[in-house]
Amino acid sequence: MNLLGAAQIRALATALDLKPSKSLGQNFVIDSNVCTKIVRIAGVTSDDIALEIGPGLGSLTLALMNSAASVIAVEIDSRLATQLPITVAEHADEPEKLTVIHRDALTLQELPMQPTVLVANLPYNVSVPVLLHLLEKFPTIRTGVVMVQAEVADRLAGKPGTKEYGIPSVKAAWWAEVKAAGSISRSVFWPAPNVDSKLVSFTRRPTPGDEDLRKKTFAIIDGAFAQRRKMLRSALSSLYGSSRAAEAVLLRAGIDPTLRGEALEISSFCAIAHAEPDN
To answer: Domain Ribosomal RNA adenine methylase transferase N-terminal: where (predicted)?
Structure first.
C-alpha cells in the first residue's frame, strides 16, 4: 500500500484540471502521516466497515483501506468520484475493498453495507448537518473521528455552562458522547485553509427516546439557543405561546425557568419535551 504525498496529490489535481472548490469545502490532506494518525485515533480494525465522507483525491481513503475490512466513500464531486477507484487501484493491495458512491452525503438514506465507523475530513461548510444526519440515519455506526473547523469541533465537544456549548453540542449528545481528539496544522492541507482544524471523536450510546421525542426535543433546543442569553421561560415563550406557559412546562419538568439553555444537558431538554401539555 502506497499512501499519497503532497506531490502526488498535486499531480492528480493537475491531471484532472481540478481547482479546489471553496463552495464544496475542498481542502485536501497532503500529509500521509496525518491520515495514518486519524485512522489510528479512530481505532479502525480489520472487522470494520468504514464510512468516509468527502474522500477527495483519496489520501485518507488509502489509509483507511490499510486497516478496515472495507471502505464506503461518498463523494459529491463527479470528477473525484470517478478518479478515486482508479487511484486506489494503482496504490492499494486490495482495491476491491472500496465502494464509491457519487452523492451528496446529506441525501443519503441507505448504503450497500452497514458502516461501523465514520472517519472523514468533513466539508467544513456542512460538517454539523452531515454528522447529525449520519448519526440519525445509520445506527450501525458505533464510533468515529471527524476533522472539522476548530470552532465547530469546540462546539460539538462543548460542555454545559461553557460558551462553546450550543445546538451542535446538545443535538450530537442525543446519539453519542463527543470528545476533542486533537488539533491539525493548516500546513497539511492543499490549499491551506484560512481556519484552524481539529479532530473530534464520538462513541454512540442509546438514545434518550424515540423519533417523536427527538423532534420535540430538538425544537426545544433550537428555541433555547435562538437567543442564548435569554432565560428559558423567555426563550421558549414563542414555542409555548407565552412566557407564563413556558414557565409552567419548565416547572413540570423540574427545570428552573430562570436558567439559560447553556446550563442544560440533553436529559433536561428531554424532560421539558416530556412535560409538554400533550404528554
So the answer is: 34-206
